[in-house]
Q: What sequence folds into this?
């Protein structure tokens, strides 16, 4: 079952839809569940809500597999290129020339966005639902993969399992590599990452996607024991 409500992302004073998947028998027992936080919440559960008409099918997969967990999906910012601002941990002058924005730089709100999840959204979810507070994961694709990797480095004692899918590391390549290098990731239990060979965004071609992820993978494999693919 999916519960939906509105939250205020206080650092930006922006309202946003939060979607929470609960196991079908959640209200028939008193069990506690691990929690997975995901970005682009509108794309997670229902095709009719998804940006391109096809969702991740997260709820269908979990129901069919019998995996018991809570998934919290926070919708992205649909206003212009504000999604890039919120999912970009550092401002990028280069990317302001790649994307048609009338700004000197783009991105840079990612730190405040992750701080909000840790300091406000997670406590609210933990107070509202029966969660295993120490079993918290994060996953996202493209820019969502970038910001999930940032979250692992910023809060490795909270987000202990990460999935970074088709990640747009190129948005903040040098910064995310340096951040990984200087982070203690010894508490990360699992880190999954992948990249397709036919990815592209604006003028960012597929080879840059591949090279970008390979560069990050090279650093991560020396920091995290359980890194998949390895």
A:
């Amino acid at each position: 079952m999916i519960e939906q409500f509105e939250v205020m992302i206080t650092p930006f004073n922006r309202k946003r839809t939060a979607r929470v998947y609960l196991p079908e028998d959640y209200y028939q027992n008193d069990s506690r569940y691990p929690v997975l936080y995901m970005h682009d919440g509108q794309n997670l559960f229902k095709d009719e809500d998804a940006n391109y008409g096809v969702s991740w099918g997260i709820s269908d997969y979990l129901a069919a597999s019998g995996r018991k967990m809570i998934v919290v999906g926070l919708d992205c910012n649909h206003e212009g290129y504000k999604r890039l601002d919120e999912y970009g941990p550092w401002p990028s002058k280069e990317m302001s020339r790649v994307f048609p924005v009338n700004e000197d730089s783009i991105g840079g709100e990612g730190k405040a966005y992750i701080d909000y999840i840790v300091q406000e959204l997670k406590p609210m979810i933990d107070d509202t639902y029966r969660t295993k507070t120490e079993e918290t994961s994060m996953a996202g694709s493209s820019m969502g993969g970038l910001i999930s990797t940032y979250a692992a480095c910023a809060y490795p004692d909270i987000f202990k399992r990460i999935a970074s899918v088709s990640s747009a590391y190129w948005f903040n390549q040098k910064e995310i590599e340096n951040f990984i290098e200087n982070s203690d990731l010894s508490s990360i239990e699992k880190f999954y990452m992948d990249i397709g060979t036919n990815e592209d965004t604006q003028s960012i071609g597929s080879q840059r996607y591949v090279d970008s992820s390979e560069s990050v993978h090279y650093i991560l494999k020396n920091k995290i024991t359980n890194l998949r693919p390895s």
In short: The mean pLDDT is 95. The helical segments are 58-65, 82-87, 93-98, 110-128, 143-154, 173-181, 206-220.
